[in-house]
Write the structure tokens for this entry.
Amino acid sequence: MPVYVGALELDLLLGGEVGSIKQKRSVVRPVVAELKRYGVSVAEAGHLDLHRRALIGVAAVSADAAHVSEVLDHCERLVAAHPEFQVLSARTRWLGPHDD
């Protein structure tokens, strides 16, 4: 049975009302928790020392590539729907049965 892994990298700009790392965490943590409810692995993975930027990584695994794609698309839309974020970039990477 094949296994497909999709990784979504979301580079975010936080609103001007976020003035410290502590405020940033209070905005990012609830979104990370919300994403986890969709059965994905997720973490704030970059821009840790910047208070108005966040890099969130999301990973999904399935035997069905279409399912992985659907889940990651949903996660991207969920984050983009939050008014406190502006998605600067979203990049998806794939690992499948033909990768070495």
